[in-house]
Amino acid sequence: MTSPVRTISPDATLETAVEEMFAIGGSSLVVTEDGHPHGIVTKTDVLDSLTWEAGGNRAVQVYGADLLDDVQYEDVVALIEKFDQRDGEMSLLDAKVHLHEHDETLRGTPLLLARIRLHTDRGLYIASGEGYGASHALNEARDVLERRIRDRKTYAQTKKPPSEEFWEKRFGWLLEE
């Protein structure tokens, strides 16, 4: 924390805000309008604004992007977007894809480990999959991730049929003789 509190106006540019943060050695500035606090801008906000791509696409961080041999970056973004579209109640906040190459190869195609991390409003989902080539590894990780999301949706839901008491409450008027 820095004392005294440093402020900035809402019409100041992001560049000005970053320069001010570096000058004071702080990580945030209070945005004031007419002397009243209007919001806070942090270094994290600045970094988040830089990770969104032009055109409003979601920025998916891919580590080991040089291993995307048979898949394009746009295909990885589309794969992640499907998770956001699948469940309307869950919103995707951040996505990271890690690719790691093993020493093993099959017909010249390396064995890859793909790890997908999805940060959502319902929690963190992590899945990994191995395959020969990036598309195979990503598809394996995607399948595991879909299963994890589906399992968490149905967690703690009983698979037992309802008891006699339930049926009597529900259809008691119909079951009377």
TrEMBL record:
What is the top-level taxon of the source organism?
Archaea
Mark the transmembrane ranges: none
* Domain CBS positions: 1-60
Pfam families attached here? CBS
Extract the SMART domains matched here: CBS
Write down the Gene3D superfamilies for this protein, in alphabetical order. Answer: CBS-domain (3.10.580.10)
Q: Which UniProt keywords apply?
A: CBS domain
Q: Does the keyword Nucleus apply?
A: no
Identify this protein by name.
Answer: Protein containing two CBS domains (Some fused to C-terminal double-stranded RNA-binding domain of RaiA family)
